Amino acid sequence: MLLTHPSSLLHPSTGCFVNSVIIVTAYDSMPLDAVLHTVTETVSVAIFTEISLANVASQLVRRAPKGQVRAVIYSGHEAESPDEIKQLLAGQEELGYKAVHIEELKSRDIDQSALRGMVEPKTGDTACIMYT
Hints:
Blueprint: H1 7-17, E1 23-25, H2 32-41, E2 46-50, H3 54-63, E3 71-75, H4 82-90, H5 92-95, E4 98-101, H6 102-107, E5 128-130
Parallel strand pairs: 1-5, 2-3, 3-4
């Protein structure tokens, strides 16, 4: 769930595409119920959003089936939307998800033995489900 501009999908989608992870797009111009439909219909387990939309992500996690969304990854500066990010972070334990800034993910040392290895896409694999 991102503001609509080309760079908003570049990093997350490229990583997903090369590992055969299907992405589902939802845009800031879509009503909350429409975005909730995309999350529940596709059984999305993670949401990538911008900090300015953290309040929408919080609402989605609360309204999605309990335990479905396990991660909310966000970008941006906390000063842009401090109240919304506090709300997003506060719901983690109650709803069973982890909220993490994209920069934190980039800086983590990853246990290479825990990785499943790259799953290369095959001809005909779905890469993206786009709701507009």
